[in-house]
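Re-run with default settings, no changes from the original entry. Doing this only to confirm the output is reproducible before filing.
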Amino acid sequence: MASKGDLDMRRQRWLLLIAALACIGSLLLWFAEIDVGIEESLPAQPPVASPSNP
């Protein structure tokens, strides 16, 4: 049977894992938001017309 200290340590590890995953998830969302913001702030470039050969 596990002692109370073992259960506390296991709970702390689970909480640390959950906190780490939440931080990673928030960083991914932040990077995605920055990427979308950059795309919206850049002016749209017109397509380059290829020269026509008559």
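The chain has one helix and no strands. Residues 39 and 46 are 15 Å apart (CA to CA).
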